């Protein structure tokens, strides 16, 4: 049994459309900011000859490419699931983050190479002015603004692509600060009499590359985890604890979790007692879904329910369920204790099995034998088993019609004689009489004292049935409904 709340593939909730629009807007604003910073830093780098500023310009150029990729990724990932992508397009965001990481690592390698070349093989005079510092200051302000906007949207909509951009631009703030420090030290070198400070710009470039590489590697690790369906540490344990608290779940067989962009998918297999009904099993599955969503808000949860034998399942329930699995009905199940053998008490069982009426004796016996073997395998304590085989629906094909007045009068007279003899311990009413071929079918309600045990009420019904069979030799089927007597008892009537 599987239970799911997955919506149709073509459906798109209103909040999903709004989320997609907001993510695209913040991604587009990041693209515009990247264009502005790239052009500004490139102009400042060419005019000053600063490797640090040129490194920042290259960094911003890659920011522009990454922001463009993020914008496209957000547009694609927001598409609803379809027949070719049943889990949606969220993985596109993870691929975007991975591509951005590779771009950053390539940029860092180039910056470090250029810085080492300048440190080892030559020094280039820089033409510094106040506007060089102003350019980097404006860069810091823009990066702080867009990184906050991106991170806010990333957390709100659980977007890894936007989070990658936010982390990327937050590191730009530190790298720009390092460049400003390098420019300041280079500018101050002639005034403080420390010539080696003229290398500060190249050293600052290496520092920028180091910061970017560190963040890139962290981002790469998270991206790879998402692409291979990894989940954050502790999530599995939290989900298992939540499921263990759901009433009715005997055992959690399997939990599978995966992320696809901002969406989380949970595939669960839980075991419940096989004696519970369909509605109860459905309610347990719903409770399991709610428990998982308490840990993973908004998750798409599918629960598969497996019926198993519980430790509290009694022998009669086991017999009924096994009989149903074999296409039979079981009733009148009685069990008794056998003498102890080898120090172990045994159990004997007697029951009636209703088999399909179209089977031959040989076919019915084979079916019942399979049931008996299955019952003794599942309940080894059963040492002795006797089954009474009877056809199911024995009157199903018989022509049943309303009994005549003479037959109704005979039944009423039998009940009256029974009452006069003082043998009756119940009040019969709502009597109906039908005829099927050469047999009478009698149904009646029998009111007994409300406080007597059910076992005693059953004995009364059996006595009433035996009495009617004695008084009416041609009676076939007798159905007696036992109920508690009320102050206003309906007088016996016949239809």
In short:
By secondary structure, this protein is α/β, with parallel strands linked by helices. It has twelve helices and eleven strands.
Q: What is the H-and-E element order?
A: EHHHHHHHEEHEHEEHEEHEEHE
Beta-strand residue percentage: 15-25%
| Multimerization status | single chain
- CATH architecture name of the largest domain: Up-down Bundle
Kindly identify the CATH topology of the largest domain.
Alpha-lytic protease prodomain-like
Total number of distinct structural domains: 4
Report how far apart the termini are: 45 Å
What shape does the CA trace take?
rod-shaped
Structural class by helix and strand composition: alpha/beta
Tell me about this structure:
Helices cover 55% and strands 20% of the residues. It is of the alpha/beta class. It folds into four domains: 2-227, Alpha-lytic protease prodomain-like; 235-308, Alpha-Beta Plaits; 315-391, Cation efflux protein, cytoplasmic domain (Alpha-Beta Plaits, 2-Layer Sandwich), CATH 3.30.70; 400-484, Cation efflux protein, cytoplasmic domain (Alpha-Beta Plaits, 2-Layer Sandwich). The longest helix has 35 residues, at 14-48. The radius of gyration is 41 Å and the shape is rod-shaped. The model is unreliable at 2-15 and 489-495 (pLDDT under 50).
């Amino acid at each position: 049994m599987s239970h799911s709340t997955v919506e149709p593939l073509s459906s798109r909730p209103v909040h999903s459309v709004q989320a997609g629009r907001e993510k695209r807007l913040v991604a587009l604003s990041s693209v515009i900011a990247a264009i502005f910073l790239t052009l500004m830093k490139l102009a400042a780098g060419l005019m000053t000859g600063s490797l640090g500023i040129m490194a920042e310009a290259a960094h911003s150029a890659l920011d522009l490419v990454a922001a463009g990729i993020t914008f496209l990724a957000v547009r694609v990932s927001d598409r609803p699931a379809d027949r070719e992508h049943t889990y949606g397009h969220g993985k596109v965001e993870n691929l975007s983050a991975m591509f951005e990481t590779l771009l950053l690592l390539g940029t860092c390698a180039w910056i470090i190479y250029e810085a080492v070349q300048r440190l080892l093989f030559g020094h280039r005079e820089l033409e510094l002015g106040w506007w060089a510092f102003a350019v980097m200051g404006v860069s810091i302000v823009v990066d702080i603004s867009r990184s906050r906007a991106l991170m806010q949207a990333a957390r709100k909509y659980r977007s890894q692509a936007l989070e990658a951009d936010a982390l990327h631009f937050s590191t730009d703030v530190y790298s720009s600060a390092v460049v400003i420090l390098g420019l300041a030290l280079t500018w101050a070198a002639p005034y403080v009499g420390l010539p080696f400070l003229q290398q500060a710009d190249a050293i600052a470039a290496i520092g920028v590359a180091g910061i970017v590489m560190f963040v890139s590697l962290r981002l790469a690790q998270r991206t790879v985890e998402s692409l291979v369906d990894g989940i954050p540490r502790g999530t599995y344990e939290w989900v298992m604890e939540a499921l263990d608290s759901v009433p009715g779940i005997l055992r959690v067989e399997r939990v599978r979790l995966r992320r696809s962009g901002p969406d989380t998918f949970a595939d669960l297999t839980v075991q419940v007692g096989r004696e519970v009904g369909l509605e109860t099993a459905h309610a347990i599955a719903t409770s399991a879904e709610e428990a998982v969503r308490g840990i993973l808000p908004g998750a798409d949860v599918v629960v598969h329910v497996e019926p198993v034998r519980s430790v509290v399942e009694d022998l009669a329930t086991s017999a009924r369920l096994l009989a149903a699995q074999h296409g039979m009905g079981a009733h009148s199940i009685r069990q008794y204790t056998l003498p102890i053998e080898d120090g172990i008490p045994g159990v004997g069982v007697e029951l009636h099995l209703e088999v399909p009426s179209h089977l031959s004796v040989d076919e019915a016996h084979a079916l019942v034998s399979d049931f008996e073997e299955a019952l003794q395998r599942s309940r080894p304590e059963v040492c002795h088993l006797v089954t009474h085989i009877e056809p199911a629906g024995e009157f199903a094909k018989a022509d049943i019609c309303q009994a005549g007045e003479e037959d109704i009068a005979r039944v009423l007279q039998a009940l009256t004689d029974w009452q006069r003899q003082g043998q009756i311990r119940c009040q019969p009413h709502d009597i109906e009489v039908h005829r099927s071929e050469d047999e009478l079918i009698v149904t009646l309600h029998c009111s007994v004292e409300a406080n007597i045990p059910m076992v005693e009420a059953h004995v009364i019904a059996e006595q009433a049935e035996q009495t009617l069979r004695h008084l009416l030799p041609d009676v076939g089927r007798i159905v007696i409904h036992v109920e508690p007597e009320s102050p206003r008892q309906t007088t016996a009537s016949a239809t």
